Amino acid sequence: MEKYSGTSQAYLSLNLDSVGKNIKELMQNNNVSDTELADALRVSTQAVWRWKNGRCAPSIDHIANMASLFEVGMEQILGMKPKLYCFCSECIYAPSVTKL
């Protein structure tokens, strides 16, 4: 992990191989080619290849757009486990939220 440099930039530690594997899997399951994904995201096919092969990470905007295209959560692309919460008033597992 990089040290904080005093700028307002936030850091997120990603496993690039895992992200690439998830992108490949989503593309295969949806029969989407590198060219089709590149065109949909307005990036080069080389960028898609680099993402799929763990050479670099897509931007958060591209991850959000892929999630929308593949109808999945960003967590699935990033390889994170989604956190589920119950919002019923009786549940002790509900996060503390202010009701309007």
Question: Quick summary of this structure?
Answer:
The chain has 100 residues and is mainly alpha-helical. It has helices at residues 16-29, 34-41, 45-52, 60-70, 74-78. The chain contains five helices and no strands.
Describe the protein:
It is a single chain. The protein is built from five helices and no strands. By secondary structure, the chain is an all-alpha fold. α2 crosses α3 (about 45-50). The protein is globular and about 30 Å long. Mean pLDDT is about 80; it is low at about 1-10 and about 95-100.
| Number of helical stretches of at least 4 residues | 5
Taken together, the total number of domains comes to: 1
Strand content: under 5%
CATH superfamily: lambda repressor-like DNA-binding domains
Order of helices and strands: HHHHH
Shape: globular
- Average of per-residue pLDDT values: 79
| Number of E strands | 0
Q: Any idea of the CATH class?
A: Mainly Alpha
State Rg.
17 Å
Distance between the termini: 39 Å
CATH topology term: 434 Repressor (Amino-terminal Domain)
**Quick one: biggest sheet?**
none
CATH architecture group name: Orthogonal Bundle
Please give the share of residues in helix: 40-55%
Structural class estimated from helices and strands: mainly alpha
Unreliable parts: 1-11, 93-100
